[in-house]
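If your schedule permits, I should be very grateful for your opinion on a structural question. Kindly check, if you would, that the fold set down in the tokens agrees with what the sequence suggests. Thank you for your consideration; the sequence and its tokens are set out here:
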Amino acid sequence: MLEAGDPAPDFYLPAADDPGAEYMLSAAADAGPVVVAFVSDETSTARPLLKRLAGVEWAQVVDRLSVFGIGTDQDALARLAEGVPFPVLYDRGGYVTDLYGVDQTSRSDQAVVVADSRCVIRFAWDGADAAELALEAVQSAVAEATE
């Protein structure tokens, strides 16, 4: 898993629920910090992570921010995207997931990174339980990424 200080590999991925919509890390980072959540293919594991990130009042932390969910199961991701206020992207074959060093051998492993405007990782977390993710640390990394 990549760590804080590492360059965040750029990606260009389609939305799981709308393949015509595509998103690029570097383009999003030009506008402000980017939170990327690599989610499990297991919806019961992925949904809590996406919901926790969706529940954050990001506007109280920073003016401009992009949040993406990324996963490798298009059908599961399309279901997960319903009701989530940010794009959930399909990483066909797990190429981007591999670039970030997220363990795909464990179907329950997930990760969150915060990238700044230069696409440098400011925060990195990986784990199976979304409740273990310290949202305060994510929010602090987002705030620091704007300085």
Summary: The two ends are 25 Å apart (CA to CA). Strands lie at 12-15, 18-24, 34-38, 66-71, 88-90, 110-115, 121-127. The first helix runs from residue 25 to 31. The mean pLDDT is 94.
